[in-house]
Amino acid sequence: MKSFKFLAMSAMIGSALMLGACGSDSANESAENNNGGNAEEAAQLEGDVKIDGSSTVAPIAEAINEEYAATQRDVQVSIGVSGSGGGFEKFIAGETDLSNASRPIKEEEITALEDADIDFTEFEVAKDGLSIVVNKENDWAEDMTVEDLKKLWVENGSVKKWSDINPEWPEEEVKFYSPGTDSGTYDYFNEVILEEADIVKENITMSEDDNVLVQGVTGDKNAIGFFGYAYYLANKDELKVVKIGGVEPTNETIESGEYTPLSRPLYVYAKNSALKEDEAVYDYMKFTLENAGEMAEAVGYVSLPEEKYEEQMKTLEELK
């Protein structure tokens, strides 16, 4: 199984080759490309940028940071992965500058930020298709409906079996692998599939680390799990993705919205005061918007239309 650090670094190599700007002067040329002038003329910054939040957004953030480090070696960027909810907790506490999220901010979180006198701006960086996956040896669950998923995942006081969905399926207990409750992926699944009902209590493993979920599903023939599209792509040789209503998650079906209701936007929330007062934070956010589309595609997500990034760049510039 590939780790995302390896995947991100591999993507950087491929990206650099496609750009055709590699070689012994790649760091200087990267600085020129991203700062609009010669490397010698580019403003070299110092500082710290603190980020936490969604594990789904993390691969994009890590890929962006690999590129950014070549242009601003003295800016130290830390990327934590405590889930969207955990990231917002740190954001509200004033511990981070940017908060990655795989779901929109909640009303209670907005209220908490207001109480803490923290103004923020929401930036959308990519699109994801929450992927339902089963073990490679599972030769029965090819296609499921939203109602099938509800029957499986909503707690009803009984141990769930595959035959509960289809009598022709095995009378074997289903083993569930879900993101933890601090995860934006869990929140999204809870909203569109569980509809706020309790998730199953038997035979379930929950983790904020999507790699734990991947390992669980690959190790059990009767397992089912869900996580971001990029984690499926990184492990597609070891997993089988389930169609939902006859539609498989792909770049095309996610971008078009055909893969419904599991297509969703991915976000970075930025603290306005940090953008205005800390040149390193502003520069990093600017670099993120300039490169999010390419990096999202490199690690397995779907980029936004270029106009969307341009609109958000104007928003960022107005904040400055």
Automatic annotation (TrEMBL):
* Protein topology in the membrane: Lipid-anchor
Q: Which NCBIfam families match?
A: ptsS_2
Q: Indicate what this protein is called per its UniProt record.
A: Phosphate-binding protein
The protein's predominant localisation is membrane
In this record, what's one Pfam family? PBP_like_2
Query: What family does this chain come from, according to its entry?
Result: Belongs to the PstS family.
Source superkingdom: Bacteria
Q: Which SUPFAM superfamilies match?
A: Periplasmic binding protein-like II
Instruction: Using the record, list the residue span of the signal peptide; answer none if the entry has no such feature.
Output: 1-27
Task: Kindly list the residue ranges recorded as spanning the membrane.
Answer: none
Task: Write the record's keywords in alphabetical order, separated by commas.
Answer: Cell membrane, Lipoprotein, Membrane, Palmitate, Phosphate transport, Signal, Transport
Compartments annotated for it: namely: Cell membrane
**What is the stated purpose of this protein?**
Involved in the system for phosphate transport across the cytoplasmic membrane. Part of the ABC transporter complex PstSACB involved in phosphate import.
Give the species. Bacillus seohaeanensis
**Record-annotated PBP domain positions:** 39-289
Indicate the quaternary assembly. The complex is composed of two ATP-binding proteins (PstB), two transmembrane proteins (PstC and PstA) and a solute-binding protein (PstS).
Q: Does the keyword Membrane apply?
A: yes
